[in-house]
Specification:
It is built from 27 helices and 20 strands. The protein is of the alpha/beta class and about 750 residues long. Strand 9 (about 265), helix 10 (about 275-280) and strand 10 (about 285-295) form a beta-alpha-beta unit. Helix 1 (about 15-25) packs antiparallel against helix 2, helix 7 (about 180-200) runs parallel beside helix 8 and helix 17 (about 445-455) runs antiparallel to helix 18. The termini are far apart. Bound molecules: glutamine and zinc ion.
Amino acid sequence: MTSHIVGYPRIGPKRELKFALESFWEGKSSAEELKQVAADLRFSIWKQMAEVGIKYIPSNTFSYYDHVLDTTAMLGAVPPRYGWNGGEIGFDVYFSMARGNASVPAMEMTKWFDTNYHYIVPELGPDVKFSYASHKAVEEYKEAKALGLDTVPVLIGPLSYLLLSKPAKGVDKSFSLLSLVEKIVPIYKEVVAELKAAGATWIQFDEPSLVLDLEALQLQTFTNAYSELESSFSGVNILIETYFADVPIQTYKALTSLKNVAGFGFDLVRGTRTLNFLKSGFPSDKYLFAGVVDGRNIWANDLAASLCILQVLEGIVGKDKVVVSTSCSLLHTAVDLVNETKLDKEIKSWLAFAAQKVVEVNALARALVGQKDQAFFASNATSHASRRSSPRVRNENVQRAVVALKDSDHRRATSVSARLAAQQKKLNLPILPTTTIGSFPQTIGLRKVRREYKAKKISEYDYVNAMKEEISKVVKLQEELGIDVLVHGEPERNDMVEYFGEQLSGFAFTVNGWVQSYGSRCVKPPIIYGDVSRPRAMTVFWSSTAQSMTRRPMKGMLTGPVTILNWSFVRNDQNRHETCYQIALAIRDEVEDLERAGINIIQIDEAALREGLPLRKSEQPFYLEWAVQSFRITNCGVKNTTQIHTHMCYSNFNDIINAIINMDADVITIENSRSDEKLLSVFHEGVKYEAGIGPGVYDIHSPRIPSTEELADRINKMLAVLDNRVLWINPDCGLKTRKYSEVEPALCNMVAAAKLMRTQL
Ligand code: GLN
Ligand code: ZN
């Protein structure tokens, strides 16, 4: 009977690591105190898994910041600007790479596959002198061993490490990251040797990149790397773990042909084709680590269904060769359901967070060897039955409305150029109109008012007045600055998804369901458990209040359906696109109410549209089709004269530009200032683009105030590729994380730059 966990959340059930890190960074606690919190967390995780009965318990899945950065440290690949001179990599160098310091900025951070976790991107070039610098994997292994636990150290494998890297600045274009494989494999050998010497019997190599559409050279690099490593694999069992999708068939063949490897791990939740591949062949002497418990979601496993799959697998690979596992690291789910004191009891019975998933994995492993815990399986079946039949899940009207959507394209009737002309007649905006993305600084005072209102410490009347006062301040400021299209500033919103989720039916909220996003930062995604509907208007009061304070156009401000979906834990009992259509219908009601209330410009943010893009190319067209369709559903019913804006938080969309055009918004504002050329290059290539576009003219992530000249220069560059009749002038994103002392001068310069450019047209 064997069970295995791919990896575990490190932040702690109540974000203990977050608070310890932040207190250390602020100089309020010592390195020793931070290390103690970390050691306590590791201990409690290992102990829990051991007590449950997990056989293969992971170690080295803890990290002070990020496990890719830990691998960079392991390989001694610290970029020279951090001043590391060999020897141990201390907190100072480590956290400087992660967060920057007074004199050097941080390394780049980017998304980990299609999750909301962000890793620190290794910067590599031909001159990097790799060395075995951080022995963390061995230290953690020994630490667990001293506690009486034999764990499986987890390493990011060499192929994935290189594919997650980028060439360092200034490196010749002909340089290939994959060529470094020869240099890093010897370090991996040293790590394996040291782990073996310390007593490790299994080592796990995570190679999630294997699920991507690999080119021949990449796959060859993988095979070469592991053939080269093989000599060090004698005397220890090697597991190669894949996750987030199934591996393409060619890769599957190459992977399972590796000789000195003891087992292979597959994601059987997202990897729907894996079962067929296994049927077509699996080496008889290897272990199959079967990821049947979903590491990306918070739903209780359907134990009966999983058991059936596991029995089929046993039939294919042999009875003693199946190891029950999670689909991927549990890093991407919430930590422990025990701390959810406010969740409705019935909904709670449908859920399993990381701690509960560990129990599920073990229960399945025991059931496979005839030690089925009948009571546990029975209560699981009961909760699934309750979820299937619960009236709070199903709303017939919503289901019918979604069915009725089928077979129609849901497009606005007129072309974008005709609409823009009609809108301009009504709005009468200057050329190069200025606007902002929505939020204004969220001061401590504002947060306090919201908190107190939520805790019922202040009355609704006082709350509404405080918000109105804030809105009026923001409106006045924008008028003084001379901005053309105003926003109300979003003072009433804590978070752009939570704010809407709280007002829609079908959503539930946790108190401690945190998931690490990067470093010490966590998000608490809402749970979509039922059909989504909108009982009443959500933003109309605030937007019309704001509009009543000014004669300039006030933008209504909504979050789009795809973003709400991608930033939530989504129900797994119906297709994602169906849930997305339901949200789209709810947002459509809001759009139409805003229009009726006299709001002529409505922005529907799709900050996270690209995030949901499937990893495999073959699955991308379908996603883009329903995602774009969902967006269009929200606004296909408005008048020509109502201007629909959308906003996106990334510039890297050259590959999905057609989908973006297909969204058919009147104006799109996009993050851009950190990657000018990349974005504008799309338009060099002659893409036919007729809608309004506002590529951010300055970076709101930085406190730096851009000068008027610099901004004018940026605008000039944009005008070289974009028609001056379509260009909008705005910052990169919302201003909520900035201070007024930064926002005021920055916007003042932005307006000045726009005015200056107008005189030159
Ligand atoms: N309207 C939102 C804001 O300004 C958009 C945030 C975002 O794109 N992430 O805060
Ligand atoms: Zn944004």
